[in-house]
Every structure is written in C-alpha cells, then in structure tokens.
Amino acid sequence: MGEDVETLKRRTPLLDYLRQHNWTGHPASRSEFVGLCPLHEETRPSFYVNTRKNVFYCHGCGQGGDLIRFVQLSRGLSFRQSLACLDPEITPEADSSAVLEEAAEFYQQQLDHSPDAISYLQRRGVHDLALLRELGIGYAPGGTLRLYLTTQGHSFDVLQRLGLINARGADALYQRIVFPLRQGEHIVNLYGRSIGSAFAHRFLPGSKGGLYAWEKVRNCSEVLLVEGLFDYISVSQAGFSNATCSLGTHLNDIQFRQLCGGDRTVYVTFDIDQNQSGQRAADQLVHRLVMHGVSARRVLLPEGHDPNSFFVQGGDAYQFQTLLEAAQP
Ligand SMILES: [Zn+2]
C-alpha cells in the first residue's frame, strides 16, 4: 500500500492535478507556485504549491499536505476513497461519483411512478417541479437498484462498497426521497429522507460533502443557512435564492470553511424545537463564525417551527423576510 501511494504521487504531480482541476497559480519562487486557495474562500492568493516536495500549504486556512490530503479535503473523502478516486489501478472501479450519478438518475426516474412519494412531497409543500428536477430529486422504492446497476455493468462489490446496497443486495435507501449531494461537478453522497416509519435521515457512508448548492450562493453578500433539505426547498420556492443547507446542525470542516472568508452575512435559520437543541446549535455556530470574523445572525422562527413547516403552515415570503430583518447577531 505504502509503495502504491508513493508511485501514485510520483505519477500525478500535485501541480498537474491542480491544473487539471482548473487551478491557476503563478511562480512565487524557484520551486513554488502561488494562487487562490481551492479549499477556502479568499480574494488574495495564499495557497502555495511546492513542486520539489510535491506538497501544498495555505496561509489562509492553514491546510497543507500532499496530493492525497488535497483530494481528501477538497472532495470530502477518506484517505482510502481519495486513493480510489485517484488511481484506477489501485481500485478498478475508481469513479464512484459516476456510479452515484447513475443511481441518482435511476431514482429520479422512479419518482414519477411512485404515488406515495409524490403525496409525501405534496405534504411537505413541494410544488415547484422545475426545482425538483433541477435538484435531481428522486425516490428509492427499494429492491430494484441492484438489478439496474448490475445490468449497467457495475459489480455487486462496487455497489456494496459505495453503500448503495446492503449485503443481501437490497437498496440501502429504501422508501426514501433521494437527494444527490454534489461537490462541484461530482456527486459525493446521496441523502435519503424516509417517507415511512424508518429513521428519518440517512446518508451513504462517507462525507456529506460541502454546503448544499454552495456554487449558487458563494458570491452572495447574504447567505441563508438552513438545516434540512426540505427547509432549503421551502425557502427557495418562496423566492429566497441565497439559501444553502448544512444537512444537520453540525457543520463539517469543509462547510465551516466555506462560510468563512469572503465578505458576507450568514443568517442561521435552524429549527426552533422544544428541547432547545436547534437553538443551542445555532447560538454556537453564530458564535464560532463571529470568532472567525464572519458576520452572522440568528433567525428566530416561531416556536416549534423550521423553515419548511413555517411555509407549509401558511407563512409567506413577506413574513419570512420580516424574521430575517429582525435577526440578531
Ligand atoms: Zn486555504
């Protein structure tokens, strides 16, 4: 394994990899290039690549390491997953995001034929079909994915390794509304919201990636951060095009770094639940953001509400806007 890793790194110099992924840097010294950091938001270049040692270091976010570390950080993958996606020879079925793409497409096709799923979406107030398609939302009826993907030429092992199916060959996301989670171009995970009695939230193994639909809002001066994907849909439908979603109240490192840097105000709009956990998480996050120099405010929804239920139960864009304006630092 160690030998393979060294061979892999020699074969793919870090600078080449970065350039293939649209990074531009200019020479800073004999063996150094400098450019904007792909791992955090910045306007002045502080990301250095040392071509002699084949490593990077960012003076802005403090991240550094070799090619594999870079892939881990930029794509939210484990060490092993990073190796797999860098080297087709170490793992023949390297491009896991392509398989996830096919799975997501398959689930998308199933949605139209699943009355239960459609009525669930209606209950959750989803009415913008164009948005539904744009987000690639689908439905996993269960029991059919394995046959479809193996017919497409993917091995049982790959599907199991990705966590799409369990050891018995059944869909891991069973009777769930499926959202593909992307980072840049690539699907890095699938999130499944149960429409039945099973535990509500489920991800495939591995990272949930960065903030949802971050590319669309990264340049907004005000960003609305919500906790769940149905919250995201509700505020988007109400015309707030500056929303993103952290898929839970705990932000991973990628998500937190995305919010830092850049000149923006973050409106944290987590659930207001009875046990106060959403409020506590929102308070902590606002505090942490402020400590990192980010302007952040807490939006207080009415007791017992999240953005989704707020709109489902008749709240409108004007009322929501009033809550945003009342948000406290
Ligand atoms: Zn950085």
Largest sheet: 5 strands, antiparallel
Secondary-structure element string: HHEEEEEHHHHHEHHEEEHEHEHEHEHH
End-to-end separation in angstroms reads: 50 Å
The oligomerization state is single chain
Which structural category fits the helices and strands? alpha+beta
- Overall body shape: flat
Q: What's the helix count?
A: 15
Give start-end ranges of low-pLDDT stretches.
89-94
Biggest β-sheet: strands ordered side by side in the sheet? 1-2-3-4-5
- Radius of gyration using CA atoms only: 21 Å
Number of strands: 13
The ligands found in this model are:
zinc ion
> What fraction, in percent, of the residue positions are helical?
25-40%
Strand content: 15-25%
What is the typical, i.e. mean, pLDDT?
A: 89
Describe the structure.
39% of the residues lie in helices and 18% in strands. It is an alpha+beta fold and 329 residues long. Strands 1-2-3-4-5 form a five-stranded antiparallel sheet, covered by helices on one side. The termini are far apart. The relative contact order is 0.09. The structure holds zinc ion (ZN). The site of zinc ion has 8 residues, from loops.
Describe, in short, the structure shown.
By secondary structure, the protein is an alpha+beta fold. Helix content is 39%, strand content 18%. The strands form three sheets. It has a five-stranded antiparallel sheet, covered by helices on one side. It has a four-stranded antiparallel sheet with strand order 6-7-8-9, with helices on one face. The protein has a four-stranded parallel sheet with strand order 11-10-12-13, with helices on both faces.
